Amino acid sequence: MNDASSSELFKPSIDVIEQANVPEYQALYDYSVNNREGFWAEQAETLGWYKKWDKVLDESKAPFYQWFTGGKTNIVHNAIDRHLTNANRNKMAIIWEGENGQVRNYSYNGLNREVSQFANVLKSMGVEKGDVVTIYMPQIPELIFAMLACAKIGAIHSVVYGGFSTDALASRIEDAHSRVLITADGGWRRGKQIDLKTIADNAMKRSPTIEVCICVKNNDLEVEMEATRDFWYHDLIALPIASPKCETEQLDAEDPLFILYTSGTTGSPKGMLHTHGGYSVYTSTTHRMAFDIKPEDRWWCAADPGWITGHSYIVYGPLINGATIMLYEGAPNYPYPNRWWQIIEKYGINILYTSPTAIRGLMRFGDRWPKKHDLSSLRLLGSVGEPINPEAWKWYHQVIGNGNCPIIDTWWQTETGGLMICPLPVTPLKPGSATKPFFGNEITIVDDEGREVAANEEGKLIINNPWPGMARTIFKDDERYKALYWNEVDGKWRYLAGDSAKKDDDGYIWVIGRMDEVLKVSGYRLGTAEIESALVSHPQVTEAAAIGLPHELKGNAIHTYAILAQGVAGSEELALELREHVAREMGRIAMPEDVTFVDALPKTRSGKIMRRVLKARALGQDEGDLSTLEE
Ligand code: WT7
Fold first, then answer.
1. Which residues form the AMP-binding enzyme C-terminal domain (predicted)?
2. ipTM value of the model?
3. Distance CA 364, CA 360 (A)
4. What does pTM read for this prediction?
5. Does the pLDDT at position 628 exceed 60?
6. Ligand 1 lined by 304 (C-beta under 6 Å)
């Protein structure tokens, strides 16, 4: 997949170079790493601040870095308010299309009215600065209103992906001690209605902290509304209290904006915490430079707002840059495999940003579906979430981009807040490589002792510097944050990404994949621990293990092993029931391909499951060093 030696070089066309926001990489890169604070201060100057910062980077509590300290801002001031006083006021901010073909549009002015109304509703419900509001919604405009309404009043949003289920939602509500949940009656997927409110009801039973549940009406599912706890969104915003005027709260640059849970090496998901100031600067700068965004562009990041990609590049970065964003609720191949290409043609989308899994999935239906459509509005294409295999890269480039759209393959993480390794449109491309570090970032590949490895050798990917978009901590767990991600070497802190990678002779970075117990399944990040605990929550399972094995479409697929309770016999029916149990508890994305019944699992003497041994066995490979395997 990442065979650097075989790669061709794709050079940008003259057109691309002539209109690029950043016409040259190397000189600006050198400047940005030698004058990191100066570079970021210049970017921050392009945004509005209620009060300018005193210090660009405060390293006094490293690795708990702080950016733009003393500055007063609010991400909504830049994402909405500032646009109301300029030509963007009447510009389209959001174009939304539902799976059944409904269309809704919001100008920046309209967006401001919606967000202000909802912000006033939240205030009337007693939501205050610093409170965590959980959002569990389908991809509809109200999801964006809810996020921005929280930010506007200084509340912290915690969005839980709408494809997750009861257990995943309950554990995230509980960790955050959320009092308020915003959800919808249901979502649409392939013509079917997903009963989000029922899942939310079950989650609320398990996590009793929720006192108020606000429900958006998105389809015609019958839902139960509990008096005094559950309220319809449309009823609330019709109340006099929901005025379309609401002051944006002036916050410190380092005040928290959101937490977003992500899977890690062990145990429960981690609530990565991001803040207003640095995140505003980082998402808008990366979006403007890497995606070359222009005022007239229509931008489509076809991710879900419930993941970091959506937070940074559907909502915050693009809105700060005053872009017009496309949002689509539904399946890419519904009713036919040309749905996305139809959307691109219909709305004149200029930039599409999606995942290798989605590209592979659509590629499978053949060229005739995209060929039915005029895709000539496309100027740039982006990829994110997992390594892109050269075959999918070339199809995306040739068939979707007609051979003249640069492919911006972006490597980053929930933790990094924004893209960290990516080409600029002017960068010569190698299919499968995310190319070079973004400005300000120094990235090296090191061995177990922390020494930089030679070119073309595999090692651990580390980031040697702080950057404004970095997560500040794990919600309520500073110690875990420091221990999981940071290493001090000769007085300098290094960030450990958890990925393995190579750098080739030209300094191009080739990310290989996760080194820890995290699985990337269809680009979704799932922890083996969460899948295992969902399995073990079934009364007939006593122990379980989950591993990822290569899969043509999904990148990786989940395979599981289960030890059954005494007296229970394994059967095909039980295997299916267990797979469905995991889907019910965690969400369909976590449903295992299979369950193998075993009598024992390979473990270390300290009792840790050796997943690499299971994986090697499944692949018929050498099991490697077994010295820590228990008898
Ligand atoms: C992990 C982070 C970045 C937003 C979506 C994922 C993998 C991400 C790439 C890429 C190779 C990639 C890494 C990383 N990854 N982008 N362009 N090439 N691998 O965020 O869910 O936090 O997952 O996704 O393994 O560590 P996330």
1. 530-608
2. 0.99
3. 6
4. 0.95
5. yes
6. no
